[in-house]
Amino acid sequence: MGITKVTMTYYEGDIETGEREMTISRSKEDMNLHDLMYFFADAARSAGYTYVEQVGCSKEGGEETWSEF
After folding, report:
1. What is the DSSP string of 7-25?
2. Residues 47, 8, 39, 14: what is their CA dihedral angle, to the nearest 10 degrees?
3. For a 10 Å CB count at each end of the chain, is N or C smaller?
4. How far is the first Cα of the chain from the last one, in angstroms, to the nearest whole number?
5. CA separation (Å) from 15 to 10, 24, 35, 48, 52?
6. Which is it for the CA torsion 9, 13, 18, 21, positive or negative?
7. Residues of the chain by 3-state class (helix, strand, coil), percent to 5
8. Burial level of 29, CB count in 10 A (0-12/13-18/19+)?
């Protein structure tokens, strides 16, 4: 059984006053590592990092997984 829901909240400005708060959530039955990397890439773009094309991670043994479209 894997992850089924990921939620990320980020703030722009002062965290105390909450000038801008955005929450991004994604649900998927049995989310895999590729899905998780895609979520992080999408969240980065939503936060204003529009130049982000891919997000990746390195697993044990040096194998990499990317958020390819």
Report:
1. EEEEEES-TTTTSEEEEEE
2. 10
3. N
4. 25
5. 9, 17, 29, 17, 24
6. negative
7. 25, 40, 35
8. exposed
| Tokens at 52, concatenated | 């982000």
Write the pLDDT tens digit of every residue in 10-67.
877 776 776 777 888 888 888 888 888 898 999 999 888 999 999 999 989 889 888 8
Residue type, position 41, single letter = A
Confidence (pTM): 0.77
Residues spanned by the domain of 14 = 3-66
Note the pLDDT of residue 69.
55
DSSP state, 3?
Answer: E
Give the CA count within 13 Å in the CB-facing half-sphere of 61: 2
